[in-house]
Design a protein that fits this description.
The protein is an alpha+beta fold and 400 residues long. It folds into 3 domains: 57-70 and 330-398, conserved putative lor/sdh protein from methanococcus maripaludis s2 fold (Beta Barrel); 76-87 and 237-313, Efflux pump adaptor protein, beta barrel domain (Elongation Factor Tu (Ef-tu), domain 3, Beta Barrel); 90-233, Beta Barrel (OB fold (Dihydrolipoamide Acetyltransferase, E2P)). Helix content is 31%, strand content 34%. It has 6 helices and 24 strands. The N and C termini lie far apart (104 Å).
Length: 400
């Protein structure tokens, strides 16, 4: 009987309890499953990043694909510079004083001798009035001395006076005449001092900048800390020229009178004709350049001082220069960027720090550049003189 109860108890222990619900796996197990899924992805990314880091980097020089005009393509030399007025002055005062009148603003045109400004000069006017009064007194004294001198001469001739009296009258007359001359010089000096308080235009031109305002102190050479050294800056707009620095190695390509094309950065679509006016006979040793001055054949109101400009030195001769300027603009790339791969002409374009091989179709050979008919766009960066082992996807680093 006991054995029967024990067997029944063992079998009841093996009974499945269907009332007990199965519990879902814990949150920790779900994170472990997600981790096992992400591990291969993370390992792949780390591997790719490691490959990028350890991949060799090729140092390259690059150039930009640009649209060039015919004159730019056929130019013997291209240089950059700035528009500079050859006749320019910072107009200041010879006297020290407070600015009372200012008759001009920036952009105003002035003629030679026009009054630009005036300083406070009441004290100098008073000095001039005093000098004129002293001159009148000296002239009156001179008249009296002259009359006395003549009277003493007549008396001496009739024997009614002595030679000593005549000599004293003569000396008094000479002193009176000298006093008149001294007072006249004093008047002239006062006039000059008064004129120094009036600031006039030294030549005809245009006011570029205004450096002082009414009420400010003006002093020659800005001798005082708070004083202004000049009132305005004017320039003769007819004297505008381009000053461009040309490297010493290329100065032999420039000759006086050579035709040029001037392009202002502010108006890149407008071309100005010009000629080499002068080559400065000295070099800048720090930059190894020689300054050249290029004169405009004609000017308009758009040309302003200190504008940056590009100068294309055209071939010598009127026919060659005219032919160059008549060529239409073309898309061009540096000749050094072109190379052959698998029998095709290609360039390596810089994309996100890597080299991308691009097949191109080329046209005319234009001095240092080649016309591009297809494959590139304006602004693309291409590798110059690509190495034979360079291929698409190689990591590159740009060097100057």
């Amino acid at each position: 009987m006991a054995e029967s109860d024990a067997g029944r108890a063992d079998l009841s222990a093996l009974k499945i309890d269907r009332d007990t619900r199965s519990r879902p796996p814990g949150r920790r197990k779900r994170w472990l499953h997600l981790l096992w899924l992400l591990l291969p992805v993370a390992a792949y990314l780390v591997y790719q990043n490691a490959l990028v880091r350890v991949a060799p980097t090729t140092m390259v020089r690059v150039a930009t694909v640009q649209r060039v005009t015919g004159s730019e393509a056929t130019a013997e030399l291209v240089a950059t510079g700035y528009v500079v007025a050859q006749v320019k002055a910072a107009v200041s005062s010879k006297a020290t004083g407070r600015l009372r009148v200012l008759n001009v603003e920036e952009g105003d045109s002035v003629r030679s001798g026009d009054v630009i400004a005036e300083l406070e000069n009441d004290d100098i006017r008073a000095d001039l009035d005093l000098a004129r009064a002293n001159l009148k007194r000296a002239r009156a004294d001179s008249v009296q001395a002259a009359l006395n001198f003549q009277r003493q001469q007549r008396l001496f001739a009739s024997g009614h006076t002595t030679s000593e009296v005549v000599e004293a009258a003569t000396a008094a007359y000479d002193r009176a005449r000298a006093e008149v001359e001294a007072m006249a010089a004093t008047v002239d000096g006062a006039k000059v001092a008064l004129e120094n308080t009036v600031i006039r235009a030294p030549f005809s031109g245009t006011v570029l900048t205004k450096t002082a305002d009414v009420g400010e102190m003006v002093a020659p050479f800005a001798s005082a800390t708070s004083a202004k050294g000049s009132v305005v800056t004017i320039a003769d707009m007819k004297s505008l020229e381009v000053e461009a620095d040309v490297s010493e190695s290329n100065i032999n390509k420039v000759t006086p009178g050579q035709p040029c094309e001037i392009v202002l950065d502010a108006y890149p679509d407008h071309k100005y004709a010009g000629r080499v006016k002068k080559i400065i006979p000295t070099a800048d040793r720090t930059r190894a350049t020689v300054m050249t001055k290029i004169a405009f054949d004609s000017l308009d109101n758009r040309v302003l001082p200190e504008m940056s400009a590009r100068v294309n030195f055209l071939p010598r001769g009127a026919a060659a220069a005219a032919a160059a300027t008549d060529l239409p603009p073309v898309l061009a790339v540096a000749k050094a960027a072109l190379t052959m791969r698998d029998g095709r002409q290609v360039v390596f374009k810089v994309m996100a720090g890597k080299a991308q091989q691009v097949a191109v179709q080329t046209g005319r050979q234009l001095r240092d550049v080649t016309e591009v008919l297809s494959g590139l766009m304006v602004g693309d960066s291409v590798v110059l003189s690509p190495a034979g082992g360079l291929k698409a996807g190689d990591k590159i680093e740009i060097t100057n």
